[in-house]
């Protein structure tokens, strides 16, 4: 459930930052759209890495095994 909040936080945070940049530089809506895309891509990559990190099987070190 924490991953969902991280995903939404990344996208919404990037959108808010883009909106603020647009207001300051009067470039609406370009910075907000660009940062929304970057936020979505970044959140997707983080979510994919989080899902893949739990799928790895435990590695056995054969050098230290005693028979």
Q: How many E-type strands?
A: 0
Distance between the termini: 43 Å
What composes the largest sheet?
none
Domain module count: 1
Counted by DSSP, the helix tally is: 2
Principal-axis shape: elongated
Order of helical and strand elements:
HH
Low-confidence stretches: none
Radius of gyration: 20 Å
Task: Kindly state the percentage of residues in helix.
Answer: over 70%
Mean pLDDT: 86
Our estimate of the beta-strand percent is under 5%
What is the structural class? Answer: mainly alpha
Q: How is this structure best described in words?
A:
This protein has helices spanning 2-25, 30-53. The chain has two helices and no strands. The longest helix is centred in the first third of the chain and has 24 residues, at 2-25. The mean pLDDT is 86. It is elongated and about 65 Å long. By secondary structure, the chain is mainly alpha-helical. It has one domain (2-51).
